[in-house]
User: Fold these one by one.
Assistant:
Number 1:
Amino acid sequence: MGADAIAETGRATEVVVVGAGAAGCAVAARLADEGLRVLLLEAGALGVDPMISVPMGFVRTMTRQPLSYRYDAEPGPDAPSDDDHCSDITSTTDDDGTNAHGSAETWLRGRGPGGSTLINGTMYLRGESHLYEALAAELGPAWAWPEFEAAFAHVERRLPAPVPAADPGESPVLRALAGGLAATGAPFVPDVRVGGGPRAGRTPGTIRWGRRVTALALLRRHLLTGRVRLVTRRRAVRVLLEAGRAVGVVVRTPDGRHLVHRAREVVLAAGALESPQILERSGIGDPDRLASLGITPRVTSRAVGEGLREQRGATVKLRIHDGLGMNERLRGPGLRGTILRYLLTGAGRLAGGPYDLVASVDSRGGRTPDLQLLLTEVSTGDDGLTPAEHAGLMIQAFPLVPRATGAVHATGPDPDARPDLRGPLLGDVRDRVMAERALAAAQAVAATDEVSRIAIDELAPAELAPAGDVAAAARYVRDTGGAIFHSVGTAAVGGPDAVLDERLRVRGVPGLRVADLSALPFHTSGGTQAVAMALGHLAGGWIANDLPHGRARPE
């Protein structure tokens, strides 16, 4: 694409942010708080589907094309094989994007202002303080838990993210699960967001008055004042570089025109799957790879797109006594009553997220959790989405910090070309050990007296993964589990060979930053929505402090 094919927009701004998801909205809000003018570019259109506002509506909206992107994720080169005592990886992907037998998967991301907060399960987890301290040990005190804790508090005032109920409520299933968690070392606390250590509680969510709250709530005031200008349906093609400096973003409009939006500072917040591709289309990456794609290398940064980490879980399903749980209220005549209640009162099962309870568990019996458990009094059938015909409950378990890494790369200069996405699939033996520990933790809760009193039998994994069998657990997690869509690490912060420095600046490119989950070298939480928002908030402060004072330069 030649320079003569690019039209100038005729407007300059101080900062242009690419991507209006959780991180991008938080970055833009903080920059506007600091008095800067921000242009926020989003590839998707404004979502108008009424199901967006229904918290449990995500089971429908997450697969609707106008609201989501679908990425084909192939197993990475280090995926376990028969030699690792795991079955082969040869089957196809189910329609809902889950992994049927260790095959290629479909990964989903939100599309439109709000990003994945439009279609996620609303779960809002700050994470584990000791993991932020591990970040700080590598990256400096600006990445420590107290800094993130303050950022979370600010974000939660703006969203808001209400404090969940302080007890499991009247449901006999949830009371039994809370008792089972306490019996296995995760005591019930009023608010799991506060503090660290093993704990359990009601799952915090971005829900208010029975309706989903998206990341756009962070921008409400600034959109009204014009401090932030949101422009939708602008697909980022590449960052515009002049004399080695980022000076704007080239975008493509729905009618195929290419425009450039100029700014003093460019911030990529398109997410861990898209931001590295934008870098590569801009000529920033491995020069050999870029040249093979017909992209002129501009800046050598071989780690772009590498280091992809993804949390991966599997589920324990129990059949419970008839009349318990919520399955009956989510199918047939019961569902009609549940819908009517929601429409009239904004309450009931549709007004909450998919998981009623959440627990942070230390598989070693200590005080630093390494597992996340998500528990619900709903169980699904074979398709993974529709409530089962019998009463049931589910416990999903996954390691907080997976070790195996994958990669995502652009496949050419066209932003609509499918990326080369290689998902990490238990390729590190430590992940296979942790898969067994995660399943064991969930099964331990299911085996407690409290839960046994309401349970009939274990439907999964049952004989597929006997306790203590690491290879069987790895097979079960790989064959029946799936990615949780919590990708991090594809343009990570780190030492001199990392893509970003500790203030999220792209090494070798003045005026360009990446401020989303691409930057995290490893996970700090079992949920990424809250982390993305807090990181965006911190990034906005760093950018405002670093940006030279003065008005945006004219065209």
Number 2:
Amino acid sequence: MRCLVDLLTTLIDLNPSSCQTDHVGVLLGAYGASLSLTDQNILKLMQFYEKNEIPFSNFKPFIWGEKGIELYSLRRSLGPSLKQPGLAEVLSLVDKNKLHSSTLCFPLRRKLQGSLVCDAADLKSREDCYDPGFLLPLFSHLLEPANIIDCRKFVESECLGYVIAALSSHDTDMRSAALHVLDKFQGHLTVAKTPEKEQLMYVIEIVQNSLPAGNTKLASIITQFLARAVTLMLKPDEHMYMIMNSFLLLKPRLDTQNIPEFFKLFNSSALQHREERQWILSLMVDGLRETADYRIFEKRFAFKMLLGVFDSCLSDYSMQLQIVNLLTRACAERSVAKDLCNNHGFLVWLANTANNLITEKVQLVSAVTGLVHSLWDSLERPSEKSENPVSLAVCSQMAAILHTLLQSLTNVSRNIHQQYLETLLCVCMQLAKLSHDARGHVTQLASHGDILMILFQCQQKWIKSNLSGSLARRALEIVGNSTKKKQTGKHVSWKGKGKVHLNPDVVLISSQKKSEMKDTVDVDEKNDRTYMEVDGDVDDTASGSDSTLNDEEKIVVETLMKIVLLWKKTSDIATGKASLLVDVIVLRWMLNVANSVKELDGGIIDEVVSVIDEKMLSDTGKGLLAKFVGTYSLESKEVIEALICLHDAVAKSTERTASGKKEDGNADHSSKLTSALNRVLAFVVEMRYGSKIPVNFNAEIRSVAIRKAFLCSN
């Protein structure tokens, strides 16, 4: 559809005489009145038709979509005898809920004459919202003095609220069109017999009296308040009806530089104080659209009050959610996010909030994760003044917040895990980039416990199917000792002094296999009571089969792989039993993902091979690797088998990269990766079996020789 519209636009630009009146009905039938790129192009095309003197009068009022196709087909058959659609028919095409969402997300940067087609996000809106460049002229035609209008239905359908929201637009023509529609509606309202006539007239007069001189825009918090006010005039049974009327009757105009009734409603002592507080907080969330609104909030010290009351006894669960949502909306603006961090101690507050989170409050944990993601996204946005917009101190604080937040992500959805991983990856990359400014201080990207916790939280399916019971038990000990935080999760729980408990659905060891653990890992019989057990056998071996993931799961795995690879590249292999265990688990996970996940990004596989070659063959890595492969344990055997299977993953990755391309570099690149793998495997063969692999063999022959050596040894 979009390509077809682009083609039509190009043809008409080249030959304007090709515009025909019959085309208008077809364009209206394809139009959806939304802010999608296709609909914006169709509207631009219709405006071009109008400039070329194509008459639109026979098509007004406009009916669009499927109803438009039916109407214009009948009109072609029946001619002018067909009755023109009225207000009811037009408003039946307008979805009330969609128009309400469009009022809340009004495109502040949309121009009335949409000569430029922009992404909805650039207009500060969403693609599924209505386009005011189409609706306002439509409302203007419907409200002609000759038409009979049901004023109450116009208000009930959220149309009046949408027109008021247009007064916050940056475009002068858009605001003028909104005032024009308001004036026409006021004319119909004077002769209407609606019971709420006087109240609606008074609200419109307040709107007109409150407008700054020179048709200056109103702040979004003011227009959202007025849009809610006109809707409340039709609902006398609601609690806020009396409060709204009392406030509006105080003065003939609003103070457009303050939040209406903020102190009264937020500090209410009425029996319905929770409802009043939720109402004003909801208004603030919807009304904070840009920096100008933030300045109004600052005049009332709104954020100081909200940050202070968040952890108090006055704040219940729903109020905390609203405060976090308001802060998330505020952090969408870079200047606001920086001001919160510099003048409100926001990072300290965020660290304390993350530390006090309870895992069972899934909505709040998800909201805080979204807040951290929004904050970092705004802070790292490029700035003209500085090449590195985020300082090392801020990066370190964000890393500490993410470390604390990780312990509460047990029950959240996959999308929240993905948000967290994306933020963590960006923070780690920025820390690595700024490491040269540390002046000798090395900032650790993530601890061993963090890496294991991330694997447990975000890859529970892999943990249950591919991590042997012995490794799982020791790994959970490390995680428990690093967190020492009392909380209960769905899959793993921490109780007491860092003791780790496995819940029945993820226990990987049975009572019969407890003795087998002693072969590879020391077992403390005194602390055995801290581990839950299940009856029956549990498979400790890796599956080794291809893993079919959906798109969301694949994105999570790839992001997690990038984090682990970055951690491995920026950290040295440390000595010690715990460090060796972490390296083994991470190595097994990387190899499993590289071998089993279909169509994994080729760059990730290259990084896996590079990290294995660099780290495992370093001076420290050789010693630990020799110690590990010499244990003859199940884990070491599986790692060796996975290293051999990685040859196939490299070959498949090279084939995908070379498909459709004729580049000689692909073969050389594949040869380098294979040689790197062979170096590692040759060292493993020598350490484990004492066999020597000829060094002067080429990559392919060495690979075959290594495989034969393993087969003979086994």
Number 3:
Amino acid sequence: MTINELAVGTLLKKGGFIDTVMSIDIEIQSWRAELDRPIENGGLGVLGVEGVNGTFTSRDQLIQVVTSIIYTCSAGHAAVNFKQYDEYAFPINYPSKLRGKPPSDKRSLSERDVLQAIQDRSDQYQLLTIAKILSEHSFGKALRKFEINYICEPKALEIRDYSIREILGVMAIRHGKITSERSMFRVLRRYRLTRGQSQHSLEEIIQGILLELSASGENAGYRQMRQRLLINHGLAATFEMVRLILGLIDPQGVALMQAGRLRRRIYINNGPNFAIHFDKLKPYGLSIHGAVDGFSRRVLWLKCCDSNKKPMYISSFYLDCIREINGIPVQVYGDGGTENSIVRDAQMALRWTDADQYQGILSFVYVSSNRNVRIERFWRSLREMCGNVWMNHFKDMSDFGLLDTSDSVHLECIRYSFLPVISKDLNEVCNIWNTHRVRRNNRISCPAGKPEVLFFQPEVYSARDCKISLVDNRELHDVEREYSQRPPELGVSQEFLTIARAAVEDLNLQYQPRNREEGTKLFAAITINIERLV
């Protein structure tokens, strides 16, 4: 018994098809009689159908017939149909017709005789067209392109968005695991991970988009929205599906996205860690520090803390980045603020003895905001991804009299109430940004691709990692010990932390908040409680 017969037999057995029941089943026996009834009498005229006197007498006969029909309509049809173009595309291999008379004797024929016998060019083009049409798949879903997607594991969905070579590169460079493409295909087949156009139901996709629009994704385009659905909700959807849904749900937002156009100067960068760009923002007492690699556009750090004026905070972010990449960037771009003085001195000191043209004082470059293009461009994307949502929320709090930006207590309470949620959003932004695919742009010299892949596999794009290897880690330890300080976890002073924790305990409040609404309730309760104490 074949595997197909075993599977069909198991299903029929579960359906209650036993010999005694089947012999009196009117529908089954009528179907059997119709199979071999002549066509002129309204039947199908199938020859050789199992059975005795036009009826099924055993379940094995039914299994044999059903298995044969399934095979003929699936594998048998595919074997005959889909290879027609491969057979007929080369006329000498499988000519559809010959010109002239067939040979009548066994004398040898020349190549010219063969070429004169096959059809001319016009007939061949007609044959190719017919064979191509007959070899095409139907308009429905092909095998393994399921209407319902059974791949729901978030990690599996993320892997499906990478090419095979990108997966192999990440495994080799980040995890030290080297394997071949054939082995990777074998693993993907074993776990049924495909790149098919299968996707979740329309209702699930719409629900996910509505959740993102109500959170920090109201300014996201359809490409970023698809990435958000994949990473934040584990939902698979095509770009076209997300684009159409956004056009129906949020037409005003789509129109605003399409209206934005910028002209940029040509940017040139030699490879990862050749130049990193860092800067900071401070809206509503929340200091956001970020850095971007110039070549790959990968976000190197994105942190929210209580101050943008403390050089030792920025120094800790910079030194953590050096530890992560295990090297020193060739150049660092930053503005002329005094808060960047330690980073400037550390970069120059670590690069002082190098022999390249950017060593020493040339390794740190003071630039104004309009020249620090990479990080300024990322700030725009950050505002679109979640920044504007938060700024609008704090503006609403100010308009309703709930927030006073001139009150230092209110600013500390903002950090205590919202910093955990904002930090979570910033981590999501990093994940989405570093795994999205940057489109090709003729105005810049850097290649297109995923920032993670561009950063860790520059050789694929005919570039190289430009970092300067650390010769002695003791210098880094000395700088870190003397000139860096990590910001407080919750961004508030110890005095305010004591008062806030007491208020949370007395009022039986939840901490940490999980979203903006819970953070707003926590902020209002703590500020009112502190005003009563005063």
